[in-house]
Design a protein that fits this description.
CATH superfamily: Gcn5-related N-acetyltransferase (GNAT)
CATH architecture: 3-Layer(aba) Sandwich
Low-confidence stretches: none
Structural class: alpha+beta
Largest sheet: 4 strands, mixed
Shape: globular
Mean pLDDT: 88
CATH topology: Aminopeptidase
C-alpha cells in the first residue's frame, strides 16, 4: 500500500482492498509471484498472470511494487528478472505490463528491456446497471 501512496501513483488503498487485490491475483491458476524482503519485512512484490493471445502465451505483470524507501536500489530490477526467468522456464513467450505513459516509470521499464507499444492504448469506462436491450 505504501508503494502506491507515493508518487507517481498517489493511490490510497485500504487494507481490505489491498488484500482483496492480492488474493484475487494469487488465486488465478498459473500466477507467478515473488516477494522481496528486508529481513522479515516485505519491501516489494511482482505478480504475473498467464495471458494467451494470437502471438502465443505471455505473462501479464499485473502488479509490480516496491516500498518507496527501497526504490532505486535494484529491488524492482531483481523482481522483474525473477518474473522474466520464471516465465521463460514455464514457456511464456514474453512478459508485458500496463503503466504510466510518461515519467520516471517509463525510464525504469525501458532500462529493463520493455518497449512501449505504438499501437495499443488502455480504455476504461464506469460500469452501469443498465443492460442492453
Amino acid at each position: 500500500m505504501e508503494a502506491y501512496a507515493a508518487a507517481p501513483w498517489r493511490e490510497c488503498w485500504s487494507c481490505e482492498l489491498a488484500l482483496a487485490r492480492i488474493t484475487e491475483l494469487l488465486e488465478n491458476p498459473g500466477a507467478v509471484a515473488v516477494g522481496a524482503y528486508q529481513g522479515k519485512n516485505l519491501i516489494g512484490i511482482a505478480i504475473g498472470l498467464p495471458h494467451t493471445s494470437a502471438v502465443g502465451r505471455t505473462l501479464y505483470v499485473a502488479e509490480l511494487a516496491v516500498v518507496p524507501a527501497f526504490q532505486r536500489r535494484g529491488v524492482g530490477k531483481k523482481l522483474i528478472a525473477f518474473v522474466d526467468a520464471k516465465a521463460f522456464e514455464i514457456g511464456f513467450r514474453s512478459v508485458w505490463l500496463i503503466s504510466q505513459g510518461d515519467g520516471t516509470l517509463v525510464k525504469f521499464y525501458l532500462s529493463n528491456g520493455f518497449r512501449q507499444s505504438e499501437r495499443l492504448r488502455v480504455y476504461s469506462r464506469t460500469c452501469s446497471a443498465a443492460a442492453p436491450e
